[in-house]
Design a protein that fits this description.
This protein has 291 residues and is of the alpha/beta class. It has two domains: 162 residues, Rossmann fold (3-Layer(aba) Sandwich), CATH 3.40.50.720; 117 residues, N-(1-d-carboxylethyl)-l-norvaline Dehydrogenase, domain 2, CATH 1.10.1040. 50% of the residues lie in helices and 14% in strands. A six-stranded parallel beta sheet has the order 3-2-1-4-5-6, sandwiched between helices. It has a three-stranded mixed beta sheet with strand order 7-8-9. Strand 8, helix 7 and strand 9 form a beta-alpha-beta unit. Helix 4 packs parallel to helix 5, helix 8 packs across helix 12 and helix 11 packs antiparallel against helix 12. The longest helix is centred in the middle third of the chain and has 30 residues.
């Protein structure tokens, strides 16, 4: 690792805050910005410098890491950061933005002479906090040494997919993965709701599948959230709904008919309308009942 290697983190939500802490814990110089500064302030106790503007965060940074809600939010942040960006810096874009939002980001990177790495991550709060995310990365060879220093601090594994980020291989793979994640989430929620409606002990359902091919750690995690009423967000329902919409848009453009995904999106929309948007996506459980 080079001396005084610095990273700017733009966005300190569930994922960004954990990334910033792990980067600082790995000995990197970290400056962080969040639209609502108060949400970033706790990072100061972990050695992160919290600043007021994106331009302050990125000033002379070796790597700029963005992890915001969606493509427009990312583009807005880097536009604000433009006065502080250093030509040649590596930009690791870690949000799930979808194929249509990627082109403006690539164009911005080109116009500002940034080395762009599209690097959405697979994981929720717990793996983010423990530095065990999986990074799906696409970007030029000359950006990888710097990017890998960052990825080593936030993740357990980096999958390099291509040198041309503009083709979108990382983002497309992330949508496929998130489609599976949302299938598991909604399937778990719906099965436990059905158990309640039929008067079946949900623990009996979990016992019946335990250790077999129908069992999975994700089933266990989301079922436990539902059964204990602990909806603290690991993967916020509002974020899951955003991803569900990106999946639907990408599938339509690709000429692929999805049936489960639109139904799952409708379920998330009902749960959000009920007021569960900032809770964990397991709160799609409530969409099974009228409130």
């Amino acid at each position: 690792m080079t001396d005084n290697f610095s990273v700017a983190v733009l966005g300190t939500g569930i994922m960004g805050a954990a990334m910033a802490r792990n980067l600082a814990g790995a000995g990197l110089e970290v400056r962080a910005w969040n639209r609502t500064r108060a949400r970033a302030e706790p990072l100061a106790a972990d050695g992160v410098t919290v600043v007021d503007t994106p331009a302050e965060a990125v000033a002379d940074a070796d790597v700029v890491l963005t992890v915001l809600l969606d493509g427009p939010a990312v583009l807005d942040a880097v536009r604000q950061a433009a006065p502080g960006l250093r030509a040649g810096a590596v930009w690791t874009q870690c949000a799930t933005v979808g194929p249509q939002a990627l082109a403006p980001l690539v164009a911005f990177a080109r116009d500002h002479k940034l080395r762009f790495v599209d690097a959405p991550v697979l994981g929720t709060r717990a793996p983010a906090e423990s530095g065990r995310l999986t990074v799906l990365a696409a970007g030029p060879q000359d950006a990888r040494e710097a990017a890998d220093q960052v990825f080593a601090a936030i993740g357990q594994r980096t999958v390099w997919l291509a040198q041309d980020a503009a083709e979108g291989p990382a983002g497309r793979l992330k949508l496929v993965l998130n489609n599976w994640v949302l299938t598991l989430v909604n399937g778990t929620a719906e099965s436990l709701a059905l158990a309640k409606g039929l008067g079946v002990d949900p623990r009996a359902f979990l016992e019946a599948v335990e250790g077999g091919p129908l069992d999975s750690p994700y089933l266990r995690m989301k079922a436990e959230a539902i059964l204990t009423g602990d909806y603290r967000p690991q993967f916020a329902l509002s974020g899951g709904l955003k991803d569900a919409r990106l999946i639907a848009e990408a599938a339509e453009r690709a000429g692929v008919r999805l049936d489960l995904a639109p139904a799952g999106r409708a379920r998330l929309e009902r749960a959000q309308a009920q007021g569960h948007g900032e809770e964990d996506c397991a709160a799609s459980y409530f969409a099974a009942f009228d409130h």
